UniProtKB/TrEMBL annotation:
The keyword Protease does not apply. The lineage of its organism: Bacteria, Pseudomonadati, Pseudomonadota, Gammaproteobacteria, Oceanospirillales. Keywords: Membrane, Transmembrane, Transmembrane helix. The chain holds residues 518 to 797 of 804 of the full protein. Residues 23-278 form the EAL domain. This is EAL domain-containing protein. GO terms for molecular function: catalytic activity. It comes from Marinomonas arctica.
Length: 280
């Protein structure tokens, strides 16, 4: 048993060293990623009950020649840790808005409400955040009401006054806000009323467990009816089957996103979907 323990320890130590090395390599690669053009955006369709395209969520992709594809779930937290998220966040916002401007000029189908962009809490908390959004609006000349900023619940419980002030300033331009991963964070519903929120996005973990876990069903149901009462839109994320869509529709959900409709796609395909006024 003793021997096994020692080997176990050695293994653990080795794994830890490996992780530290991996992290150092990742950090180093991340520093050059913008300059070396290693980022691009993909767009995941958002649809209504009839499968009509109502929007896109912009999602960041990173391909590094040495590391291959690295998931944003892996590198965004690292970027936040080492302070690169500001530069990356600006890059995402600017590129999503440039693309939106191209689509705007092309002429948008009437059902299309615009593009959602994920905003890191660190990025939002930055002093100059509102200014940087205004700058991008200015340089790209987008219709601000076509921009949907996705923020997380956790952001709404700290510095309420300052967060609300920033949101209202952006709201005045017509920018919309969605709460991402709703139901996983603090969910203190009382807070919601302080902020100009347009939409709640039901986290995909609830959608995934809809049929197997009665709690998920109850929570989803509660979120949908609460959103109704508060006059908010509600969108279900991570919808992967007809079955899940049917349950959600039954609960009263009308907006969806997930592999069942489409995976995130590159800009050229997203452009085709828009041109064809695609029904998913
Ligand atoms: P998120 O904002 O909750 O984005 C949804 C994630 O679920 C995306 O993963 C998407 O590809 C994936 N997804 C969509 N439909 C389905 C489905 O039907 N089933 C399953 N299992 N997954 C689905 P992705 O693109 O890997 O992004 C992961 C997370 O990384 C995002 O979660 C978001 O928190 C973060 N992220 C991505 N892009 C950005 C960005 O530009 N800025 C910031 N700050 N964070 C980003
Ligand atoms: Ca999101
Ligand atoms: Ca989400
Ligand atoms: Ca998520």
């Amino acid at each position: 048993a003793k021997k096994k323990g020692r080997n176990g320890f050695r293994f653990y130590r080795q794994e830890m060293l490996q992780q530290i090395t991996d992290l150092a390599i990742l950090e180093k690669a991340l520093h050059g990623a913008i300059h070396d053009n290693e980022f691009y955006l993909v767009y995941q369709p958002q649809v209504n009950n009839y499968g009509v395209l109502i929007g896109y969520e912009a999602l960041l992709r990173w391909f590094n020649p040495e590391l291959g594809f690295v998931s944003p779930a892996r590198f965004i937290p690292v970027a936040e840790e080492i302070g690169l998220i500001y530069e990356i966040g600006d890059w995402v916002l600017e590129n999503a808005c440039r693309q939106l401007r191209i689509w705007q000029d092309m002429g948008l189908p009437p059902s299309f409400e615009g593009v959602a962009v994920n905003i890191s809490p660190y990025q939002f908390a930055q002093e100059g955040f509102v200014n940087s959004v205004e700058k991008v609006m200015e340089s790209t000349q987008i219709d601000p009401s076509l921009l949907d900023l996705e923020i997380t619940e956790g952001m709404l419980v700290e510095n309420i006054a300052s967060v609300a002030e920033k949101m209202w300033r952006l709201k005045e331009h017509g920018i919309r806000f969605s709460i991402d991963d709703f139901g996983t964070g603090y969910s203190s519903l009382r807070y919601l009323q302080h902020f100009p929120i347009n939409q709640l996005k039901i986290d995909q973990t609830f959608v995934r467990d809809l049929s197997s876990d009665p709690n998920s069903h109850v929570i989803t149901n509660t979120i949908v009816s609460m959103a109704e009462h508060m006059n908010l839109s509600v969108l279900a994320e991570g919808v992967e089957s007809t079955f899940e869509k049917a349950i959600l529709e039954n609960i009263g959900c009308t907006r969806y996103q997930g592999y069942y409709f489409s995976k995130p796609v590159k800009a050229d395909l997203a452009t085709l979907f828009l041109k064809d006024n695609e029904v998913f």
